[in-house]
Amino acid sequence: MASGIVALLAAAVLWGTVGPAQLLADTDVAPVALGACRMLLGGLALGVFTVRRAGLRTLWRPGARLWMPVSILVTAAFQACFLEAVDRTGAALATAVTFGTVPVVSGLWARGLDGERGGAAWWCGTVCSVAGVGLLLVPGEAARADAAGVFLGVVAGAGFGTYITAIKRLARHGADTATAAPVSVVCAGVLVSPWLFAAPDGIAEPRAVALVCWLALGTTALGYLLFTRGVARVSAATAGTLSLAEPLVATVLGFVLLGERLSLPAACGAGLLLTGLVVVSLPARGRRRDDAAPHTGPADAAQHTGPAPNPDPDPNPLSNPAPAPSPSPARRPSPAPAPAPHPARGRAAGPAGPASGGGHARG
Known about the structure:
Blueprint: H1 2-15, H2 18-25, H3 31-50, H4 53-58, H5 67-89, H6 91-114, H7 120-136, H8 147-172, H9 177-192, H10 194-198, H11 206-231, H12 236-242, H13 245-257, H14 264-281, H15 289-292, H16 298-304, H17 327-331, H18 342-348, H19 355-362
Helix pairs in contact: 1-11, 1-13, 2-6, 2-11, 2-13, 3-5, 3-9, 3-11, 5-6, 5-8, 5-9, 6-7, 6-8, 6-12, 6-13, 7-14, 9-11
């Protein structure tokens, strides 16, 4: 589970750079058109390293057919709504709203679909993290609160929380999640690609090209690769809580690169957010083995379908090797007539059981 936590935190750090990079580039590209470029290029780059023909076939298994369209739709919603929220409210605020929503939605999905109940550590960590996000939302000197932007952030967070659930369900139904991620991203990019034709302004500018390359290759291709590997090793609720590292990164980068000042409540919120992440991460070693077992996807199925016990066990475990040795004790008294000598018969009637009868008949 520790490797899954590290991978998810690394993905969250990469995703935390999306908002600050978008504002730092200061391009005239429409946010939705930017998201389309990010998904198309990033999904194709990710697919080069992860998509396999056998993996594509697993995406259409009976249990996975429903969740693949869901993952595509929520990926498109997340990308479009999140980048628009950043443009309206700023990097720190949009990221905080979006990823403050994720653990709530992913936890509700996990409880509703799997009956998964977060333990004390998860509840404590999530409460600290959500409280930290709330403090980050307290208006400061550089805050640009926008009702539509906040709403879009909530929609983006709900989409990402649902995406976590979709990936978990795909893994549970035997789908190759390493293939599912780039397929979801590319198909989502195709869904929003009309914006590239509706608002193409500024897409060819050097700053825009550099921004698209970072968003596509760094935050999408590498970020989704790390996320897909990590999410299969932890519970959905824990994955949602760990994603709260993203607003922390966005807030710090906003302060360092964009000159956004942290007010006292925002600084306290960042501290609470970090505390929540630590609380969720540390108890992983002591958790029960069965808490992670249902989330290992195809690997878990392989473990349970490995060397199975004998499906038709013989009540006498020595009956298989018995036919070879059993005749020898019965043949020793063969010169004698029908009544076999009792010492040989006694030895043959020992552990071999019914085999002694066959030996005697041959004798």
